[in-house]
Amino acid sequence: MKVFILKLMNRFLAVKCALTLSLFIFSLHSIKADGSGLAQFAASEYSVDENEESLTVTINRERGGAGAVSVDYEITPLTAGNLDYTATNGTLSWQDGEKGGKSFSIDIVNDSINEPIESFQIKLTNPINGLVLGALKTTTVNIYGGESGTFQFASAGYITSEFDETAEILVTRGLGAKGAVQVDYEIRGGKDLSELEIGGVTFSRRLPDTIVENADIESTFKPGVPAKVGQDFIGTVINPLKGTLTFRDFEMSKKFEVQLLPNFDGQAFPFTMVELVLSNPRAVEGESENIQPVLHTTKFRSTLRINDISGPDTDVIWEQQPWPDAPGSRRRGFSFMQARYKRSEADFGVRTQEEFDHPSYRLISIPVMRALPYDASVEVGYMLGPNRGMFVDDARENWVNETPKANNLMASNGDDYNTGIKYLLLPGDEPRISPSTLSFGDNFGDFEQPMHSRLSLPQRILNPGSDVASPFGARLFTPSFSLPMTAEPQMKDFGVVTGKLSWAADDLDPKLIEFKIADDDIAEFNEDFVIVLYSLKTEFDDFARDSEEQIENDGGGDGGDGGDGGDGEDGEDQEEEKLIKPGSHLGVQYWTTITILDDDQPAGGAVGDIVGSAFQPDINNDVYDLVIQDSQYDSGALLEVQKEEKIYVVGDFTSIDGELINRIQRLNNDGTVDDEFNVGLGANYFVNAVDISVLDNDTVKLIAGGGFTSYDGKPRKGIVRINYDGSVDESFQPGLGVSGEIIDLKVLDQNGSVIVVGDFSEIDGKSRNSVARLTGEGKLDINFDIGVGPDGPVNSVEIMSDGRIIIGGDFLFIGDDYSPSIAILNPETGQLDNSVNFNQGINGVVHDIKIDPSGGFYVGGNFTHAVGVPMNNIAKFTNDGDL
């Protein structure tokens, strides 16, 4: 028993001595610091954008000023290296009696590479002549290398037809997407385009033997025509000829439309060409000066080709060589009536094999116009693609849709191939249309079709922003060769069909190509496939061959102007005049694309997940804070029983449920976006904190703080108050705003005053170190002044029931008072409340504080002791500061 008591006394004395020694050492440091001073960085972390090209780092000498002192600083790379910054180690010195900050600069390398955040560290070492290093003896510099983007057209050349009404033009923002930015566009006529930029189309024919004996197929090149405003396109209120595209933060693409006009001038053939130009890239007003978008060096210009469908005037193509075409015989070929069609899978798609097999259910029809000559029977082939380049037992080939064989395609194939017969040579569907035909300009599967030459069609026919659709044959569900993760049959996108269209003589009605698309449950981009017309007379014989038109002789006289010799000489032979009657051929618009519009939403979880809640907002990045609005303030509800709670979320996200929303949004209680709350461009950088302000007239406002510099394109540095509809509250004017970032905030009363904490040094140009109070008008409350304030960032703030203010963070001192990571402030003055003694405080970082309604408050963070007592990361205090 005595031994036990002696051991207990020894432990007590040892602990007491250790505590006394610690206090003694701390007192020595305090004495030293009060004499020679304490040196530490002005901030625990610096952030710099590449565009700023330099960073100024400040080291403060605080508390004492006795004697001349100095301290070294050393720069250590982390993820950033010498390609990202230029700096050397150095020394800063203070004279006797000199206090305050000393600064040095680091050059930041501004490259054009879109990079993640890269960091390096600066450390203070070797304090001289009694100078003591403070808690902030290291700091981290984060270099933001995300570029603001390069504007360019998504395609070097767009293509449409005169009967498409409008043409969509996609503009993209690549190599970075930081900040809200704008770029101007202009739609011009084609008079300034070069012949090479316009291009043309090669036409072919075969003359009759009565005009050219043993005539071969001959070709001629017909250049395109510069488009004209008012004839080929116009500006409207909805689709002006000049406009501005606004990209929100991290928004990558925007569209504008060209309003087309059918041009029945037969000289505007085979197409007209429009010039498209981007100019004046810039940041949205109020954005940071670091937001500097640029134009692509070459792709800031593009063209729009408008294919002619109505046909050329007589002799426009061959120009009367060797003889004129018959009067009125416009060489209009087989042609679609538009270049672009769109069909929604929800409205037109089939979901079962029974629906697919039904002869008329959800059948899509696309019209085709016939070619001359109208007094002859003519026909043309067609194929949908991309089609299936593999062994299949229900091939679409030689203009026939084969039915499935007895054995399915996994066991054997019923495909005709290697027969020596055209379109029966290759396994799979023929003529073969590969996926690259839409996107990279490959041929349409038959090199004997002169009109199909991609020299006459250099443009990509895949709509910008679309994927290529996948085909199926007679089975809606087919085994997947491209999805090896499952052996189950998969639903593809469209059913491949082929066939011929025939017209009798004098039959001028359009003929229909009919097919079906699938309605799957996969969330996808829009997808395109193509329908292509094929000449069935590639040797230009039969109805495809030109013929001689008989000239009517009116029998009017035997020559000359009234005599029997006329002006000519007797006996001289004159060559007989001839006329050419055109045969049939493919028109310029021998193809058309079908865009399948997807209606599926991304799934709420992985396959097989059971979702137990209807609350499933899909937010693409971090949420830092949220606040719930009571149902009584739901002003959007018509009836009292319809009122519901709303949730405000803030953070560093840029989309919710696929909708571009920058960092602030109000959600309905089922997690969907509240459409009555429109943030416009939103916040241009992260938002850390949010609170609701209910003014004395029950008007609801939202106040948000963070590291942003603008909201909805309006300058708001670090703090903004927002109206119920999402617009900026102009009655709350914080002036120059926050120099740094707000990490947390709390609304104090119905007048709208708010206390803000964080890592900042000024509010509206006035000194306030990481703690400040603003009035309901957004002005700094000059009566609330913490003075020197904390020597590190403040992460959290709460208001006690008696009005006192609790702050927590990563600091050691409040002015000259030792108060590690936690303190209570006077609600009137903002000064430290010395009536509460937290003793040794928190030996780590406080991240959050929450009031307990029954009394006291909780503190959470990264620590192992609270007021000297072992506590791992969470502790509860009374209102007097006791555990």
Describe the structure.
The protein has four domains: 38-144, CalX-beta domain (Immunoglobulin-like); 148-331, CalX-beta domain (Immunoglobulin-like); 333-393 and 434-551 and 588-600, Immunoglobulin-like (Sandwich); 623-877, YVTN repeat-like/Quinoprotein amine dehydrogenase (Methylamine Dehydrogenase, Chain H), CATH 2.130.10. It has five helices and 66 strands. The protein is elongated, with a radius of gyration of 39 Å. It starts with a helix and ends in a 6-residue tail after the last strand. By secondary structure, the protein is mainly β. Mean pLDDT is 86; it is low at 1-33, 480-485, 555-571 and 602-612. A hairpin with a 2-residue loop joins strand 29 and strand 30.
Give the biggest sheet: 6 strands, mixed
Structural class: mainly beta
Number of helices: 5
Overall shape: it is elongated
CATH topology of the largest domain: Methylamine Dehydrogenase, Chain H
Distance between the termini: 33 Å
Strand content: 35-45%
How many domains make up the coordinates?
Answer: 4
Low-confidence parts, pLDDT < 50 over ≥5 residues?
1-33, 480-485, 555-571, 602-612
Radius of gyration: 39 Å
Number-wise, the strands total 66
CATH class wording of the largest domain? Mainly Beta
Global mean pLDDT: 86
CATH H-level superfamily of the largest domain = YVTN repeat-like/Quinoprotein amine dehydrogenase
